[in-house]
Design brief:
single chain; Growth Hormone, Chain: A; disordered C terminus
């Protein structure tokens, strides 16, 4: 029998690695841009390519994990992610880095479509919030150390060292999976993953996301329309299918699940691109080096690291919607600290805003995940966690798409520099107001979900999908 603590350790390392990579790359972007000759829009694609591929493959990966084995899919995903990290480190052109980042996104989808499901499979409901809080804390520890260590690595070695650092972490996880994690977890027996419908889902969602990232152009609008039509066709084919890929009807009928996912989408859409914008602001506007900028950006995820385990434990005792709704309210307040940023904005305002934003996100994330996993049956754990992760990564992608659209309208294909800092700051402020509005809407989505009695159910869902 597998020790639950070993599964928790594996999930924690996995949850650390991807956010570490994302946040470390943010402070390395100016160096990558100079080294590979990339403009502002191309820099955005370093993150966007990863997020799009992660989003579109999460649901098929989660469905495959429920059918063929959660450990098997998780292991394959970590192998892909580790190999892609090595390829990113060796990239010699901007398009190569974007392509290998896409491959990293595929591995990430296989990891995050299964890690929470594996954890939920071995931890009962009464202890689940604590375990999920530790995993959330690992995510935020990665976000905390990413800017700091990333800045040091970039200044002392090069941006390529950030990718090389993922290789020993990947090797450690693969060793633990092979040597210490015994057995397998499957949600369904006899089911199959229908490749045609899975491909239609992937292509339709990818078209919609690519269209959203370039919605100011005719090409972007055409892609959006094609993605919408493809997704409508997918849902028609899914309705009544013997082995659905998504099973949208049953999940949408689950009020706790549906509104928890909507709240997650709004939360990550409102908050993710802030660190990307602040990294550029601190280096281009304030003239900081990547090390100093990364140290300041640690404020938000450091607060999240400290408070996430507490939020997880609270959600084992208090209704998750109460804790996470307060988190959304604090997130909205934190975002407003960054409204009207200019050259003279004091550093203490930025640090205070990051602290409030970090507390809000900590109070939101693990209670929201606890509510989602408590609201579905064990057979659907991987698919449920994949759908929640789709909301998370989709929100992150949408957040970056908003910034990319604003950059496209105000900066175009130019590199960020002294000649266009006023346009950069205008885009920054517009993005913050959009994100604040989305976060405010998230408060109501979080409250709307209703109660889920995880503490009295002791692992038995109150509402089944």
């Amino acid at each position: 029998m597998t020790d639950p603590n070993t599964v928790l350790l594996v999930a924690a390392i996995a949850s650390f690695s991807t956010p570490f990579m994302l946040s470390a790359i943010n402070v390395a972007l100016p160096h990558i841009s100079r080294d590979l000759g990339m403009n502002a829009l191309a820099m955005g694609w370093i993150s966007l390519s990863f997020l799009i591929v992660s989003t579109v493959f999460l649901v098929p990966a989660g469905r495959a994990a429920d059918i063929y084995g959660r450990k098997r899919v998780f292991t394959a995903g970590f192998a892909v992610f580790t190999a892609a990290s090595a390829l990113c480190a060796m990239a010699g052109r901007g398009w190569q880095l974007i392509m290998f980042r896409s491959l990293q996104g595929l591995g990430s989808a296989m990891i995050f479509g299964t890690s929470v499901a594996m954890l939920t499979s071995v931890y009962p409901g009464a202890r689940r919030g604590r375990a999920l809080g530790i995993v959330s804390s690992s995510v935020y520890l990665g976000l905390s150390l990413g800017p700091f260590l990333g800045g040091i690595l970039v200044e002392s070695l090069s941006w390529r060292s950030i990718f090389y650092l993922n290789i020993p972490m990947g090797a450690a996880v693969l060793y633990l999976l092979r040597a210490r994690v015994r057995g397998e977890w499957r949600g369904e027996s006899g089911a199959v993953l229908e490749p045609g419908r899975a491909a239609l889902y992937v292509l339709s969602l990818a078209a919609a996301m690519l269209g959203a990232s370039s919605a100011a152009s005719v090409r972007g609008l055409l892609l959006l329309a094609a993605g919408g039509a493809g997704m409508a066709a997918f849902l028609r084919l899914e309705d009544g299918a013997r082995h659905p890929v998504l099973g949208a009807r049953s999940f949408l009928g689950n009020k706790v699940f549906a509104y928890s996912c909507l709240a997650a989408l709004l939360s990550y859409c409102a908050s993710f691109a802030v660190s990307f914008l602040l990294s550029l602001y601190l280096q281009y506007v304030k003239g900081m080096g990547p090390g100093r900028a990364g140290t300041l950006l640690m404020a938000q995820p450091l607060v999240m690291t400290v408070f996430s385990p507490l939020a997880g434990r609270l959600s084992d005792r208090i209704e998750p919607r109460v804790v996470s709704s307060w988190g959304m309210a604090l997130t909205t307040a934190g975002l407003l600290f960054f409204s009207g940023m200019d050259v003279l904005t004091p550093i203490w305002v930025i640090a205070a805003g990051l602290g409030v934003l970090g507390l809000g996100l900590a109070l939101f994330a693990s209670p929201n995940t606890n509510a989602v996993m408590a609201s579905v049956e064990p057979r659907a754990y991987s698919l449920a966690s994949s759908l929640l992760a789709t909301m998370r990564v989709g929100g992150q992608m949408s957040s970056m798409a908003v910034v990319m659209l604003l950059f496209s309208l105000s900066i175009g294909g130019d590199r960020i520099g002294p000649g266009n800092l006023d346009r950069f700051l205008s885009s920054f402020s517009t993005a913050v107001y959009i994100f604040s509005a989305l976060s405010f809407l998230g408060i109501f989505a979080s409250l709307k979900r209703g109660d889920v009695r995880t503490r009295s159910a002791a692992g038995t869902p109150q509402n089944s999908a």
